[in-house]
Amino acid sequence: MGVLQELVNIEMAFESEMKLFGGTSNQTLTLEVCDYLGIDPGMISTKTFSDGETQVEIQENVRGRDAFILQSTCTPVNDNLMQLLIIMDALRRASAKRITAVIPYYGYGRQDRKVKPRVPITAKLVADLVTVSGATRVVSMDLHAGQIQGYFNIPVDNVFAAPVLLKYILSNFQDNLVIVSPDAGGVERARAFAKRLNASLAIIDKRREAPNVAEAMNIIGEVEGKTAIILDDMVDTAGTLCQAAQALSDRGASTTHACCTHAVLSGPAIERIEASPMDSLVVTNTIPLNDKAMACKKITALSIAELLGETIKRINSSHSVSTLFV
Q1: pLDDT at 107
Q2: Chain segment 13-70, per-residue pLDDT in tens
Q3: 204-222: average pLDDT
Q4: Please, are residues 196 and 173 in contact by the beta-carbon 8 Å criterion?
Q5: Average confidence (pLDDT) over 246-273
Q6: Residue 40: which of 15, 56, 60, 55 has the closest Cα?
Q7: How confident is the model at residue 205 (pLDDT cuts 50, 70, 90)?
Q8: Do residues 204 and 216 lie in contact, with contact meaning Cβ atoms separated by under 8 Å?
Q9: How far is CA 326 from CA 160, 266, 320, in A?
Q10: What is the mean pLDDT of residues 280-295?
Q11: Which of 56, 111, 106, 113 is nearest to 81 (CA)?
Q12: What is the pTM for the complete model shown?
């Protein structure tokens, strides 16, 4: 009976225990999520051979476990993506019961459609790679386009950073707000924020002449004398945000701020932000800030660890995730 009871206890522990493994792209966020969940991060070893190949070893038993892998596919995008795929393959071959890829920032998400002949839909290719590597579910945050969820043949939870950003806005900005969409594609997101904040709405009429080059042409809506908050899903080279901030300032906005989920901040982004009339930029830690970004006094990073941790907890216990955003 002692042996049988031990087997029963082991089975019960396996059913209830989750494992959260972190890749190297965002280790601080992994630790924060584990702290919220009250668990230790999964033991994993990642190495790089001299020729650039990635080697992964799962250093604990995951047989029958509910395994989660947290990895943003940010800079260096291809290395982090490959590492994510290899970790999932290792977990699949180690007989994990369920493998959930937690990808706070989904790289290649902007290549979500054919904008001209003879170009790939890379967001779909990445979805296929993630699925083939062993993922049975995907969790991401503020996908660049909603249709990316349809590129997967497995369940996808697109978590919104709105609760974190809304809490910050309510705590730091008073009345007379106007929420600004930097382009027509972000109007739905901006309208949802404006409704929750009881604020007015404005739209930047923007024309993009080339990749990572944007020109703000006109402002639709009243911004004069108001606190303008530009809302976007990501800030890359900051060209769009800075031109929008300049246009808002020229139209008489009293102060100009920006809220973005993903701080890609590549190329001349920091220099542009520091030189722009933008008073502050609020981002989340889906992507870790580099040293230059951390030194910029205009940038504030908010943690989404609690939001991701609660999402993981609910997936593990088969409870609703959508109720987080009601």
Answers
A1: 95
A2: 434 589 999 999 999 999 999 999 999 999 999 999 999 999 999 999 999 999 999 9
A3: 73
A4: no
A5: 96
A6: 60
A7: confident
A8: yes
A9: 11, 34, 11
A10: 96
A11: 106
A12: 0.91
Alpha carbon distance 215, 161 (integer Å)? 27
Q: What is the mean pLDDT of residues 142-160?
A: 95
Q: Please tell me the distance from the alpha carbon of residue 267 to that of residue 83, in angstroms, as a whole number.
A: 24
Are the CB atoms for 272 and 238 separated by under 8 Å?
yes
- Residue 178, phi then psi, degrees to nearest 5: -130, 125
The neighbouring-strand residues paired with 78 are none
Q: Which two tokens stand for residue 67?
A: 């395994």
E strand or H helix at 19: strand 18-22
Tokens of 241: 């945000």
Helix (H) or strand (E) holding 272: helix 269-275
Q: Provide the residue type at 90 as one letter.
A: A
Q: How confident is the model at residue 2 (pLDDT cuts 50, 70, 90)?
A: low
Please, are residues 231 and 200 in contact by the beta-carbon 8 Å criterion?
Answer: no
Give the integer Cα–Cα distance in Å for 80 and 86: 10
DSSP-assigned letter for residue 151: G
Catalytic residues: 206
Nearest Cα residue to 244 out of 233, 234, 254, 257: 257
* Stretch among 102-116, 200-214, 303-317 having the lowest mean pLDDT: 200-214
Cα(179)–Cα(231) distance, integer angstroms: 7
Tell me what pLDDT residue 10 has.
41
Element (H, E) at 100: strand 98-103
Sheet holding 18-22, edge to edge: 18-22, 66-70, 98-103, 137-141, 156-159
CB 166 within 8 A of CB 197: yes
Q: How many CB atoms lie within 10 A of CB 221?
A: 16
| Structural contact between residues 178 and 150, judged by C-beta atoms closer than 8 angstroms | no
User: Residue 13 has what pLDDT?
Assistant: 43
C-alpha neighbours within 13 Å on the C-beta side of residue 11: 6
Place of tokens 């609020």: 282
Is there a contact between 124 and 296 (Cβ–Cβ < 8 Å)? no
